[in-house]
Amino acid sequence: MTSLTPQLLAALTLFAFVSSITPGPNNTMLMASGANFGFRATVPHLCGVAIGFGVMVAAVGLGLGGLFAAFPRLHDILAIVGGLYMIWLAWKIANAKGVAGGQAGGKPQTFWQAAAFQWVNPKAWAMALGAITTYAPADQYNLNVLLVAVVFLSVNAPSVAIWTGFGVALRRFLDRPAVLKTFNIGMAALLLASLIPLAMELAG
Question: How far, in Å, are 58, 134, 142, 155, 188 from residue 113 at the CA level?
């Protein structure tokens, strides 16, 4: 029997939902991708986020988190690399041309790009570490870690799909290049704003 009780499972599910549905780098990029490329073209990106984060939770719980605890500087280096990558992504979003007359002005992220991004996403690290330390009891720990990962995968997938759907719903309002450009710049600004907590942490 696992020590992940029904009460703890309910609390974990709520935590997974709140942390998955609230704004962050993944949701911002998925909404922008949905608006620029449509839902079907964004599905690989969406799946990469959900599955990639589930794998990350399992990996963190099964030992990778201990590596960063032993070598804190590795976490700082990863955070800086992630911040720089997110700045580049913000630039890509701001300059995306979307789909006009059937001609794509760019490409949505692939499955592997989205999955790899989880490892340099500060919010993903906070979510993974918070979930493991709070909701994976020591009794039958490895099994509990895998259960936490499965719960996050199950909750995260529909949550990020909702954000993609938001973007798709906005497409009809973004048919003019000037409006689409303004939207993309706004999404890029939100992505950059998500770096503020990271910058404050590194500065402190």
Answer: 19, 29, 28, 21, 18
Please give the single-letter amino acid code of residue 8.
L
- Residue 66: exposure state from Cβ atoms within 10 A (0-12, 13-18, ≥19): exposed
Whether residue 22 is predicted with pLDDT greater than 50 in this model: the reply is: yes
Sketch the domain layout of the chain as residue ranges. 44-95+109-203
Burial of 62 (0-12, 13-18, 19+ CB in 10 A): middle
Cα distance between residue 189 and residue 172, in whole Å? 22
Question: 0.85 exceeded by the pTM?
Answer: no
The single-letter DSSP state of residue 22 is S
Dist. CA 202–CA 204, nearest whole Å: 5
DSSP-derived letter for residue 75 is H
